[in-house]
Each structure stands twice: as C-alpha cells, then as structure tokens.
Amino acid sequence: MPRWPEDSRERLVNAAVALFSEQGFSHTTVEQIAAAAGVTPRTFFRHFRDKEEVLFSDDDRLLPLLLAAIAEPDPPLTAESLMRHALGVLADGLEPDRERLRQRHRIIQTDVALTGRELAKQAAWQPAIAARIAERGFAAPDAELLAAMGFALFRAAFVGWLEDRRPATLRARVARAIPSARTVLDARVQD
Description:
Radius of gyration: 19 Å
Largest sheet: none
Number of domains: 2
Distance between the termini: 71 Å
Strand content: under 5%
Low-confidence stretches: none
Mean pLDDT: 91
Number of strands: 0
CATH class of the largest domain: Mainly Alpha
Shape: globular
Helix content: over 70%
C-alpha cells in the first residue's frame, strides 16, 4: 500500500492554484497547500521542489508531447504546415484545462518572479525543439528561427484564448495566428 495517495500530485496542484487565487502567491505556504490537499509537506516535496514549481507541473508532459509531434513521420513538409501540426497537438493537450490555465495565468501575472520563471522554462525548451526541427531536415539556423517563431505565435494565441470567454478552441487560435504572422511581416509603417 502506498504511503501517500496516488492522486497527491493532482490534488496538490488543484489546492495550490485555489489558494494562490484566494490569498495570493506570496501569502500561501507549502504547509497550507499540503493541508488543503490532505497530505503532509513532506509529500509536497516528493512532487515539487518549491511552491513555484506547482504552477509549471504540466511541463513534464507538454515538452515530450510537442517533440513527438514535430518528429511524427508524416506531417507535411513545409515549415508552416509542420508548425501548424506541432502547435495544434500542443494546443489539444492544453484544451481540457482551460479554466485552471486561466487561473494559473492570472497568478503568474501578479508576480514578476513567476513571469521570469515561465519565460526561463520556455527558453529551456527552445534548443530541444530547434534540434528536433533540424532533425526533420531544416537547416540549423532556420530551425532556431522556427522554434522562436513558434513560441511567439503560440504564446499570442494562448494568452488570447485564456482571456477570451468565447468557445473557440486553442487549436483554432493557433491556426489563425500562423498566417497572421505573415501579414505582420508584410506590413508597412503607417504614416
């Protein structure tokens, strides 16, 4: 019999997000999170190194999901279609958690250190993504640029999806963001 419930990690994430939303990130302790989840602080630290990490708990499943989508044998061969496919798969992986992700986004926006941590995690992903794109046959400099563009496009679509109450899917927003980038690149300075 396990010494702590199998769903401890999920309960800790849910408890943390609820407490951060109610009383603020900086006013919430690990002990409060553990108590709300019905576990001990020691169990908390078996799953997370600190309370900030709770907000980034999806990273362990999302990066492999994205890398697998890039590596799939049959996505179309253009950079745009590869980006549409890979970012669409990532979007599908996030879609069921929209409300929790909205709460998470609001929490991160209230703390500059959390915003920095979010950006640092994304930057840590970029070399792995660029390497996987290069494995698909794109030149290394192009793969780096595509990875950077993918982050920018996805972030814009993601934030818009979180802030919008309409039922449009994240995949649909990503699909609209990709051709919008071309329009922006073709834009001229207005007088």
